[in-house]
Amino acid sequence: MTDENFIKKVREQDKKTVSRAITLIESSNGSANQLLKSLHKFTGNAYRIGITGPPGAGKSTLTNQLTRYYRRLNKTVGIIAVDPTSPFSGGALLGDRIRMSDIGSDPGVFIRSMATRGSLGGLSKKAVEAADLLDAAQYDIIIFETVGVGQSELDIAKAADTTVVVLVPESGDSIQAMKAGLMEIADIFVINKSDRQGVDATYTALTTILHLYNRKEVVPEVIKTVASENKGIEELAVEIEKHRKSLIESNLLESNRMNKLKERILENLNYLINEEISGIIETSLIHELAELTLEGKLSYVEASELLLNKYKQKLLGK
Amino acid sequence: MTDENFIKKVREQDKKTVSRAITLIESSNGSANQLLKSLHKFTGNAYRIGITGPPGAGKSTLTNQLTRYYRRLNKTVGIIAVDPTSPFSGGALLGDRIRMSDIGSDPGVFIRSMATRGSLGGLSKKAVEAADLLDAAQYDIIIFETVGVGQSELDIAKAADTTVVVLVPESGDSIQAMKAGLMEIADIFVINKSDRQGVDATYTALTTILHLYNRKEVVPEVIKTVASENKGIEELAVEIEKHRKSLIESNLLESNRMNKLKERILENLNYLINEEISGIIETSLIHELAELTLEGKLSYVEASELLLNKYKQKLLGK
Asked: Does the keyword Hydrolase apply (chains A, B) (predicted)?
């Protein structure tokens, strides 16, 4: 799978090969690591956009329209949907899925949905690896579409160079609460479905809070869109481009990527150690310690300390 | 902090001491571990209920009413709110916070909000440790209130013996999408705000999907409530009690707790190793490797493999 011909086909955006390569990444075995190592030198050229927000905000429609916009500029687009409510990942109703199929059949667009079933922690690692692969496959733009409420989804959105947080007019009430999470990651806000009631109040609430609490160098812009009618999409794309340019001019693009890379390296270290541990430590020992803990003879902290010592002893060959 | 008098006061539900002890857990230093070790033998008696669902579903009001119900039965209640939109954790508007204050001043109720700011992964560990503490402090019922969308919040909800997923009549559209996440963790569903339009459609959609896709031994019950008017609360409490009894009769209470404990021990092992690594590996080395990776000379996988070797060498005293 890591032979030259396979890599050549990935680089040529051969959809079947790209798709097989991502499946390999999802299975996360040794050959996936080999592949990522071989492709690494080809990465770093794509621009990564994260689109996140609550369920029902219209993230997929927005992704769809934004993709069409980039296609008109002749840019190729790779989409990674890790959103259980996204029609890309098969979560939504049939109607939505059909609506999406036009970009899906475009040879310059690659769509991959990644399941949230199972460990989401692992998923964020794999989603970013899939983006690396699409990057090496020379897609110009990579879009992560995630439901932005949990930490793992935020992790994926944060892996982007520009993160767009999508809200709806009805989000007004929860904007106050949102301060804690979404605000820190948003470079641009979108109020989608802006033909609905409440848009002005939400816009005012959002801009006010942004001006009061913003901790970034630049206050994030707020764009109104009606994605289903293609309204505001160009404005959004222009704002993304403005953000990209400002990152480059301030040298933040590189330093942000550097910081994200450090986090990724440490996370992967963590992952490697976990793999080692599950190879080294017998499940019967874990069971035994858990039993002692349930019986009140050990605390769970002591149980894990015992396992750590076991791991070290094995490493030392004892 | 781990002296006998301190532990005695925790056991006596002295609110100030319990509060200080949780602050200690939040700071997660060595003395917190010491405290948890000393208190461990007193845990396992409280019944743990998780209340989760999307923002705005009325989880806090429901928690509030359920707490009042248990208080009328003379049971003491500890509440851990890890919900940025919860009035308990200060996310919501002032009105809500005042509405909650009556249970807050009850000597038989302990409310603690835990911030989602910072690492949510760490938070789920601390929330469960706080529950252990409240358990040792002899609270009869412990309620976790979390926003159930992200994985980490789900982790907290899963730490409960009975998990209640709260929806609203408007959730109808997203029930299809919900299959992926919330359904697997719910023991009981609540449709709150059931005086609103759409409740029948949502009830039908939910029960249909539950009967089609349920993989548990028993199909979860769906209860309609209007928490703000105290409607349906007793039914919910009865259903929770029924679930508790069925867990005990089928020996699942113990085996579920055992499985959760194993996960916790392994997670903590992970945490201990991370702490060790950050103590052992110089940040300058991480920086150097990240630079080589950005330059395309290493893949991030190779960078983390080099760190793993470094960690092992240090352990071996090289």
From this structure: yes
> What is Dmax (Cα atoms) for chain A?
69
Run of H or E residues at B97: helix B94-104
Sign of the alpha-carbon torsion through A254, A256, A262, A266: negative
Tell me which of B195, B224, B250 is where a domain ends. B250
A26 found inside a domain: no
Whole-angstrom distance, CA of residue B308 vs CA of residue A7: 28
Q: Chain-wide mean pLDDT for chain A?
A: 84
Nearest Cα to A37, choosing from B288, B295, B303, B290?
B303
Domain residue limits at B311: 266-315
H or E segment and range at residue B237 = helix B233-249
Chain B residues with CB-CB distance to A55 below 8 A: 54, 149, 174, 177
Asked if the Cβ–Cβ distance from A303 to B93 is below 8 Å, we say: no
Give the pLDDT confidence score for residue B248 in this predicted structure: 95
**A292-318 mean pLDDT:** 87
Is residue A303 pLDDT above 50, yes or no?
yes
Tell which of B41, B304, B312 to mutate to test the A interface (max A CBs under 10 Å).
B304
Q: What is the ipTM of this complex?
A: 0.79
Question: What does the pLDDT average to over A105-112?
Answer: 92
Is the pLDDT reported for residue A44 higher than 80?
yes
CA atoms of B55 and A281, how far apart (whole Å): 40
- Which residue in chain A has the smallest CA separation from B260? A290
Which segments of chain A does DSSP mark as H helices, in order?
4-11, 15-27, 30-39, 59-72, 94-104, 120-136, 151-158, 172-178, 182-185, 199-213, 233-249, 252-280, 283-294, 300-315
* Residue A58: half-sphere exposure toward Cβ, Cα within 13 Å: 25
What is the tally of structural domains in chain B? 2
- Tell me how many residue pairs between chain A and chain B have CB atoms under 8 A apart: 203
Q: Is residue A13 part of a domain?
A: no
CB–CB of B261 and A307 under 8 A? no
- State pLDDT tens for residues A178-210: 545 567 788 999 999 999 988 998 898 888 888
CA B313, chain centre distance (Å): 38
* Intervals of chain B under pLDDT 50: 89-99, 117-120, 179
Smallest CA-to-CA distance from A304 within B125, B144, B82, B316 is with: B125
Chain A residue with minimum CA distance to B258: A290
**Interface residue of B59, B60, B267, B273 to substitute, partner A, most A CBs within 10 Å:** B273
Q: What is the pLDDT of residues B75-119, one digit of tens each?
A: 999 999 886 555 554 444 334 444 456 787 899 999 998 865 444
Let me know whether A241 and A102 are in one domain.
yes
